[in-house]
């Protein structure tokens, strides 16, 4: 972990070059992201993106740890942050510490992320004082989807004060960065100008100190739905669909495998191709 970026490195980027973040859940994708990102988040979005769950509420600590171990093997430079899943930290600071300590010990991550601001400030301070760097997540917090009644934009009108208070409380509690999810652009700018730690936006405008996207969303791999705040930089689901259709056609027509994929009785020399 020593050669990786650290939470203080990220904290120090406030007001400097934008902080580039993506999620990852597997070794090969972590390896790709590591070359381009400052922070790689093992998000609890893994439940919806890779496991087909209807929300993040069903994600367990064991799932997070399994994916975080895989991501760890793919990183050389980026800071790895792991989400604490629903139910693993809200009950008490002690519960949060036990969960976070287990995640850190088993996955070698350098920080955890949890959802909440004012209500979780005591918990965040408890972790930070005990050596666990915390990234906070405010605005639209998907683990509260039932309380919100959906995934609607947060911080409009008088609600702005609530989100600002959450971000400020997280920074005050010692969070080294705060994710702002799906809030209005003016509010994202105001929070970014107000709090002393970097804001990492997702659906929160270019005013933030950094940006994060769910990697499968920006690759066009998770195509079930498409939040407005996602820009698709590739269409991997479409490409995979074409590839599978072509493969199925080839197999049915006995065009695959071809002679070069098949083996003779007499081994060929290395110069003559694979044996
Ligand atoms: O779980 C996740 O992917 C996240 C990011 C979108 C911030 O929390
Ligand atoms: Na998350």
From TrEMBL:
EC number, UniProt record: 2.1.2.11
Swiss-Prot/TrEMBL cofactor(s): Mg(2+)
Transmembrane segments: none
Intracellular or extracellular location(s): Cytoplasm
Residues holding 3-methyl-2-oxobutanoate: 44-45, 83, 113
InterPro entries in alphabetical order: Pantoate_hydroxy_MeTrfase, Pyrv/PenolPyrv_kinase-like_dom, Pyrv_kinase-like_dom_sf
Subunit structure: Homodecamer; pentamer of dimers.
Family: Belongs to the PanB family.
Full protein name: 3-methyl-2-oxobutanoate hydroxymethyltransferase
């Amino acid at each position: 972990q020593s050669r990786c970026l650290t939470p203080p490195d990220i904290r120090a980027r406030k007001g400097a070059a934008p902080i580039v973040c993506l999620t990852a859940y597997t070794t090969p994708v972590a390896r790709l992201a590591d070359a381009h990102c400052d922070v790689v988040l093992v998000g609890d979005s893994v439940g919806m993106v890779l496991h087909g769950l209807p929300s993040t509420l069903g994600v367990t600590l064991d799932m997070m740890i399994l994916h975080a171990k895989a991501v760890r093997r793919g990183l050389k430079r980026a800071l790895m942050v792991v989400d604490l899943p629903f139910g693993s930290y809200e009950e008490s600071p002690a519960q949060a510490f036990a969960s976070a300590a287990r995640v850190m010990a088993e996955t070698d991550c350098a920080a955890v992320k949890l959802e909440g601001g004012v209500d979780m400030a005591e918990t965040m301070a408890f972790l930070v004082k005990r050596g666990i760097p915390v990234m906070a997540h405010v605005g639209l917090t998907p683990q509260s989807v039932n309380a919100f009644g959906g995934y609607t934009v947060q911080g409009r009108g008088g609600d702005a004060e609530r989100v600002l208070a959450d971000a400020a409380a997280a920074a005050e509690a010692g969070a080294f960065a705060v994710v702002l999810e799906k809030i209005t652009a003016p509010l994202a700018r105001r929070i970014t100008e107000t709090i002393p730690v970097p804001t990492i936006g997702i659906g929160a405008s270019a005013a933030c100190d950094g940006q994060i996207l769910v990697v499968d969303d920006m690759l066009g791999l998770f195509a079930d739905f498409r939040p407005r705040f996602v820009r698709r930089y590739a269409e991997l689901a479409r490409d995979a669909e074409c590839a599978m259709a072509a493969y199925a056609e080839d197999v049915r027509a006995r065009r695959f495998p071809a002679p070069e994929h098949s083996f003779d009785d007499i081994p060929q020399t290395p110069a003559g191709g694979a044996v």
